[in-house]
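Entry 12.
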Amino acid sequence: RGILSLMNTKPELIDGAVLYLRIYFLGLPAVGVYNCGNAIFSAAGDTARPLRYLLIAGILNVIMNLFFVIICHMDVAGVGAASALSQYVSAGLSDLFRINTDYKLHLSRLRLDPSKTVDILKIGIPSGFQNAIFALANLFVQVGVNSFSATMVAGNSAATNADSLIYDVMAAIYTACASFMSQNY
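Predicted 3D structure (tokens):
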């Protein structure tokens, strides 16, 4: 609520936004699990499997949105619940504990290799800062959007969904390049 207030969120929207974020954040562990699985599959050259998992979860998200909002009349809570649940579906589908491949996850064998950890951090820390700066810039854009009417803010939120689809297509290109380079490296 505090951050949303700093972003000049309209008073008539803030309660719904807080509720949505609280429910949506419940799905963040699943996002981490899916992203880890996606990275492992992609590095091994299997980019089709994570795409299928994401496609299934995305279709399920749309269906659950309609069900929760239209049939169950859950409004914002329904949209948040559909998002969180679909994230758990994508994470569950990319179950690295049960797959029969060379990259099956064995928690008992999980160890950090110091030299590889340093190499990962050399790439990961700058990448993390880049993403943080991008996210911070988006917060400033959202503050500007929040200066308009509640209808305008809601319309911008809907348009942002289309923006993420376009971004995902661009991200697919650099993910494919990273996967190809990782395989060959």
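Annotation: The radius of gyration is 19 Å. The mean pLDDT is 85.
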